[in-house]
Amino acid sequence: MSRNALETFIAEVRASWGPLSSQLIADCRGHLRTLLQAPPTEDWLASLLNEQPASQELYSDPDHGFVLLAHTEEEGLYRRPHDHGRSWVLYGVQSGVSEMGGYAQHLGPDGKARLVKRDATLVRPGMALAYLPGDIHDTHCKAGPALLFRFTERDLLQEDKQEGQITRYVEEDGVFRVAPR
Fold first, then answer.
1. What is the pTM of this model?
2. What angle do CA 86, 131, 23 make, to 5 degrees?
3. Which of 31, 90, 102, 152 has a CA-to-CA distance to 19 between 20 and 30 Å?
């Protein structure tokens, strides 16, 4: 019996899985890029494109803990800078266009931590970006609705609720600073 693109992605990631390394990131990003090319006639993808869920878990691995989510974003949706705690993350765009900005934290003249935007990448269909533990980024849907896949090495909802590992930022007078917990 042949597998669909989602089943193939899961099998290939499971076969590649191991400790964080350049090779693991390259392998998983390659698997995600292949998934982004899935034909829209596959039932799982047709359902996502039709229902346009804001967030839907597609797979959570019982052995390794990685999670694949789908997000539908309306044009103009902006998600403020944040990191993913101890986790590394891959974002891939299936349809639409998302701009993803990268930031570094810097101490300002007042001694408070602030973010400095270092770059922005227009992520188009078929593209996937990697963010390593501690990397700070934002997302801004430029053409939507956009369907994005977010692959995380662990369940980030659990990570944030139980351990408070994820850092979010708020804008104050045109400067992003760490949001109070």
1. 0.86
2. 95
3. 102
The total of other beta-carbon atoms located within 10 Å of residue 15's CB is: 9
Q: Please give the residue range of the domain that contains residue 83.
A: 5-178
Report the Cα–Cα distance between both ends of the chain, in Å, rounded. 49
Query: pLDDT per residue over 38-56, tens digit each?
Result: 999 999 999 999 999 999 9
Residues present in the chain in total: 181
Q: What is the pLDDT of residues 109-152, one digit of tens each?
A: 888 888 899 999 999 999 999 999 989 999 999 998 999 999 99
Structural domains in the chain (count) = 1
Q: Tokens 């430029």 sit at which residue?
A: 142
Block residue for tokens 């609705």:
145
CATH number at residue 173: 2.60.120.10
Structure tokens at 98: 């998302």
Structure tokens of 161? 């609720």
Find the helix or strand (DSSP H, E) in which 157 lies: helix 156-163
